[in-house]
Amino acid sequence: MDKIRFALIGAGNIGRIYGDAFAHVPDAEIAVVCDPVIAAAEALAGKVGAAYTGDYAEAVTRTDVDAVVVATPSGTHAEIAVAAAEAGKHLLVEKPLDITLERVDAIVAAAEKTGVTLGSVFPLRFSAGVHKTRLALAAGRLGRLALADVFVKWYRPQSYYDGSWRGTWALDGGGALMNQSIHQIDLAQWLAGPVTSVIGRTATLAHKMETEDTASAVLTMQNGALGVIQGSTASWPGDQARVELHGDRGTIALEEGRIVRWNLEDASPSEEEAMLNLETGGGTGAADPTAIGYEKHRRQIADFVGALREGRPPAVQGAEGRRAVEIILAIYRSAESGLPVSLPLE
Ligand SMILES: NC(=O)c1ccc[n+]([C@@H]2O[C@H](COP(=O)([O-])OP(=O)(O)OC[C@H]3O[C@@H](n4cnc5c(N)ncnc54)[C@H](O)[C@@H]3O)[C@@H](O)[C@H]2O)c1
Fold it and tell me: How far is Cα 240 from Cα 221, in angstroms, rounded to an integer?
């Protein structure tokens, strides 16, 4: 069986993680690496045995490419993804899909129009603990859900932002929420949402940057549950990111998608122990963005490749990737106006 061949657009931090992840997906390979920083493209291409180019338009129109990974600064995703869809290539796009709903919708529309498959990258959705939590919630084992809370108390030094696209409105589209907390916000909304309204506050406290390094929000879910989001890159030394779910019959807490608390009224001690030992380790970006490891990206790439082979949708489709972006934009809008904001956004 021929391998599915990808163009990898962006050879930065996450591009290098894709290089490691693809090495462990047997029926796919990177055919070309693209980055305007040619030395970065060449180095990664050399490592993965691919061609390289500095021009994404050339990469996404190559006849030996079936699909494209978009791993460039967040505010450039739509431009590249739409060009790739128009060239008939399937799309696996890093979080956030893009930084405005108009551009997110442009990607979704381009994929629909051209009939290509669109996957939205949220690797934590591929953790076994998240899967078990979904099943417990669906079976009503937490009872009446009361709280769905997100804590991303991370740390980034000033050097992370200096001279970078990070922390800019134009290319990052936000800060601690749009760049870092989005993974856990996606989990909270997937597990306990949809979110119907938010009240938000944002602040820039410890860094010289345009966007927020600290944010708090109160969420209301459609099912009536409440939740808070605490997101920061000014919280040294940086804790594991948590999602906590509480109902009147149980509590589950996840750290980076791993179950760290499984207290359900109907759970046996052996089940609790099994859940706590479901997955070991896994990297965290709490203090170092390059320390996340490639395993969950590997799982998402494998699912995407399986979807292409089997002609089924991938586990995380484009419309799913839109949800966390919409929640974050609603929090920014609330922070600006001082008023609660309802979803869906106008
Ligand atoms: N899923 C995750 O866990 C995760 C982790 C980190 C970053 N990300 C996302 O991945 C994206 C990239 O983040 P990063 O940390 O790798 O950034 P980075 O700055 O380390 O790398 C981005 C690379 O893209 C290149 N680039 C810029 N414009 C380009 C263009 N038009 N064509 C081709 N290449 C271009 C840059 O030269 C740079 O090498 C962001 O959207 C970010 O949110 C996801």
Answer: 24
Ligand 1 pocket test: pick from 35, 127, 184 the residue with the most ligand atoms within 8 Å of its Cβ.
35
pLDDT of residue 292: 78
pLDDT beneath 50, residues of the chain? none
- Going from N- to C-terminal start, the domains of the chain cover 4-120+294-315, 124-281+324-342
Token pair 């050399």: residue: 46
Q: Which two tokens stand for residue 181?
A: 């907390």
Domain 4-120+294-315 has CATH 3.40.50.720: yes
CA of 68 to the centre of ligand 1 (A): 14
Verify whether ligand 1 is closer than 6 Å to residue 179 (CB atom). Answer: yes
Number of H helices and E strands in the chain, helices first, is: 11, 14
Distances (CA, A) of 2 to 27, 116, 133, 304, 305: 7, 19, 36, 16, 12
What whole-number distance in Å separates Cα of residue 282 and Cα of residue 247?
Answer: 27
Predicted confidence at residue 280, as pLDDT, reads 73
Superfamily of domain 124-281+324-342: Dihydrodipicolinate Reductase; domain 2 (3.30.360.10)
Q: Is the CB of 13 under 6 A from ligand 1?
A: yes
d(CA 4, CA 311): 13
The whole-number pLDDT of residue 291 equals: 77
pLDDT in tens, 287-324: 888 877 899 999 999 999 999 999 999 999 999 999 99
Tell me which residue of 135, 104, 68 sits closest to 320, measured CA to CA: 104
This prediction's pTM: 0.97
For residue 182, the ligand 1 atom closest to its alpha carbon is 43
The amino acid present at 82, given as its one-letter code, is V
- Enumerate residues 6+ apart whose C-beta is below 8 A from 63: none
Token pair listed for 106: 């442009």
What is the model's pLDDT at position 281?
A: 65
Residue 258 confidence (pLDDT): 95
